[in-house]
């Protein structure tokens, strides 16, 4: 199989990485396809199974861990498992595209360690923890408790930023989008 490149965007929840990833996916010249993760949490109102995630029961998720079906997986929050199925990467590479990931920092660094040469790992940094909290509240997708859990985790995640190939500071969204575009464009076009 012809293998392509892997582009990882990792960041604390609410830092804007999903917006950046969607923007990059809208650019056909980058030849990207989104790695649909498996998740054991229930879908949010606007989420579609097989598009945003492969939504699995906790039991099915654990079965797939046992069967070694994941390239990487994480219990990102308690009983909320997320992971990249090996078949997902095969599917995208078989179609001749590069893979883009929207995953947590541990998973992102795992991918970088498994495929060091083929992976561009980018960390998206929110302006501050305070701002992150405001964004998560505005999004209204999580309860107060869950928001606090995500904010607490963000401080730990921020400490891993230096291990990534690049850090994008998301203070000004348009600038962050441009910077992300340039990084990814250079990486996918290198040695062509
Ligand atoms: P959410 O519940 O907001 O969709 O995602 C929660 C966190 O899980 C986010 O940081 C998201 O990037 C991360 N995540 C999504 N898919 C994966 C995956 O396949 N592997 C890992 N390690 N994290 C993931």
Describe the overall structure.
With 192 residues, the chain is an alpha/beta fold. 42% of the residues lie in helices and 23% in strands. It has a single domain, classed as P-loop containing nucleotide triphosphate hydrolases (Rossmann fold). The protein has a five-stranded parallel sheet with strand order 2-7-1-8-9, with helices on both faces. Helix 5 runs antiparallel to helix 6 (144-158). The model has no long low-confidence stretch (mean pLDDT 92). The structure holds guanosine-5'-monophosphate. Guanosine-5'-monophosphate (5GP) is lined by residues 13, 37, 41, 72, 74, 76, 82-84, 102-104, 106-107.
Set out the fold topology.
Elements: E1 6-10, H1 17-25, E2 32-34, E3 37-39, E4 53-55, H2 58-66, E5 70-77, E6 80-85, H3 86-94, E7 98-102, H4 105-114, E8 119-125, H5 129-139, H6 144-158, E9 166-169, H7 173-189
Parallel strand pairs: 1-7, 1-8, 2-7, 3-4, 8-9
Antiparallel strand pairs: 3-6, 5-6
Helix pairs in contact: 5-6
The protein binds guanosine-5'-monophosphate.
